[in-house]
Specification:
There is one protein chain. The strands form eight sheets. The protein has a six-stranded antiparallel barrel with strand order 3-4-5-10-7-6. It is built from six helices and 23 strands. The protein folds into three domains: 109 residues, no CATH class; 136 residues, no CATH class; 86 residues, no CATH class. With 372 residues, the protein is an alpha+beta fold. Strand 6 and strand 7 form a beta hairpin.
């Protein structure tokens, strides 16, 4: 029964992909569910720890970095050597913060990458090695231990008052530098349900996902709790194979729905506009005003012996205002019409940013204007 049910689902899935592709080809690309959603309970976790990097060639922390000195004193005391922190002068050691991301799928004994960042005044971590550092999560429990030589992908060379540096030398990585000591508990199912969480919450996408799942399984097993969570009841034939069910759900095709957005990066002059952005009837006039002021110093020398020498400045002001182009966009214009109109008046990316902000302020831009 299980094989017949799975074969029927796969056959219906193939028909759905072909039909959906022919209907939505002109509107938006089809994507897999795994590209727009995740299974609730399956997530990464962040780890961090405070450690020491040793073996530096005089590029470590100075004696003014109390964290470094105190950490070394504490370490020596654990080895039975008592040294006052005030008497220590170290330049081959650096205090660092170690961070890592641990996936939910790793098991005890697996290795993960770590990032090592200096927290003192070390000039470079080149050639250093990290001493064993426990990595803990937000709950305070240790889940991994990191240790090993650093890889910075650069260098710094100093000689006298000159120096040459490539890349950032106070941040390093250790590939597979941490060993997992404890697994993070997780669950991909809740009672008899699997919850799918959308990366971009949207009521339309959630409703389409519910319809797709119910059509594929020919029964109402999916229900949307809100705009981001869709609950799927586990069918009887998948009661002992939830992994297979999740794999099938993640491969389902769906056309996601998103809000109309215009994203602006003012630092780089980048403008990205979605195809669903609409413009109401609006007239736009844009021109650049250029003002140039030149200062020309001069000296006035009196004739004979009467009067005084005068030193002054003569200002020359030049104002240029090119004729601004006037464009008219009719109601319902899309992003292509807007771009063509802006290019027609010779607008630069910076000008386009100013124009879009003005159109949004006028209430004629139907979409979210996001400024990075």
């Amino acid at each position: 029964m299980y094989k017949r049910s799975q074969t029927a689902v796969l056959a219906f899935l193939a028909v759905l992909i072909i039909a959906a592709g022919s209907v939505f080809a002109a509107e938006a690309p089809l994507v897999r569910v795994k590209d727009i959603a995740r299974v609730h309970g399956v997530r990464d976790n962040q780890l961090y720890g405070l450690g020491l990097v040793v073996g530096l060639n005089g590029t470590g922390d100075s004696s003014g970095t109390l964290a470094n000195v105190q950490m070394v004193a504490n370490m020596l005391e654990r080895f039975g050597i008592t040294v006052s922190a005030d008497d220590m002068r170290l330049r081959n050691v650096a205090a660092v913060m170690v961070t890592a991301t641990i996936p939910a799928s790793v098991r005890v004994g697996d290795t993960i990458d770590v990032t090592v960042s200096s927290i003192g005044d070390a000039r470079s971590l080149q050639g250093g090695s990290l001493l064993q550092t426990p990595l803990q999560a937000a709950n305070g429990q240790v889940y991994a231990a990191a240790q090993g030589p650093l890889s910075i992908g650069g260098f710094v060379v100093r000689g006298g008052a000159s120096s040459v540096q490539q890349n950032h030398t106070t941040v390093a990585r250790i590939p597979n530098g941490a060993i997992v000591e404890q697994e993070i508990p997780h669950s991909h199912s809740y009672s008899d349900e699997i919850h799918l969480v959308l990366h971009e919450p949207d009521f339309g996408t959630a409703a389409r996902l519910v319809d797709t799942i119910n059509q594929v399984f020919t029964q109402n097993i999916a229900q949307a709790y809100d705009q981001s969570t869709v609950a799927v009841k586990i069918p009887e034939e998948y009661a002992d194979n939830t992994v297979g069910l999740i794999a099938l759900l993640e491969e389902l095709p769906i056309r996601p729905d998103t809000k109309a957005r215009v994203v602006i990066n003012e630092r780089t002059g980048t403008v990205v506009m979605g195809a669903d952005v609409r413009i109401a009837t609006v007239a736009v006039s844009h021109g650049n005003l250029s003002v140039r002021v030149d200062a020309n110093p001069f000296v006035s020398q009196p004739t004979g012996f009467v009067g005084e020498t005068v030193v002054g400045v003569d200002y020359n002001i030049d104002v240029q205002e090119p004729e601004g182009g006037l464009m008219l966009l009719s109601g319902g214009s899309n992003v292509e019409d807007l771009v063509n109109a802006l290019n027609a008046v010779g607008a630069s990316p910076r000008d386009i940013i100013d124009i879009l902000q003005a159109i949004k302020a006028a209430g004629a831009l139907y979409g979210d204007l996001i400024i990075m």
